[in-house]
Design goal:
CATH architecture of the largest domain: 2-Layer Sandwich
Number of strands: 6
Radius of gyration: 18 Å
Strand order of the largest sheet: 3-6-4-5
Amino acid sequence: MTQYRRQQIADYIRQQKYPVTGAALSETFNVSRQIIVSDIAVLKKDHPIQATKRGYIYQMPEKSGGICERTVTVAHTAEEMPTEVRLIVENGAIINDVSIQHPIYGRITVELMLTSVEDCEQFSRHMAEDNGRMLAELTDGIHQHTLSAATEKILDNAINDLRRHGFLLE
């Protein structure tokens, strides 16, 4: 019974386009959140399931050889941030994280997992509503993103758009 439920959970996450929260899985499979956490821990041994701040995702390798990933260094103002993130996801890339190299604390990385224009708009809205400040403000706007996509071409297009808009540091 437990093994069957775990396989159903893995299949369910794999079929979702967006991250699935533990609460949603708990409700869907009629078990406690604690059981879901335990099941996910076991499933991660054999499945490419990742826990993000927005929920669980299944990172299935594509036929092209897998998920392509690159790190880019960019710089912009807080006002330009919505444009920057939107450029990336409109090309089909995912913004996995943002990081800076702080002179005292070293590398600071924060997971973002922005996968769609809606994610970017929500992120920008939360930043504005909460008077949030960009991590990159600690480094005069300079920061890095880890981007991922199904193909290298998608990453090339996103990076070229960042270059055209003057955000890319090379």
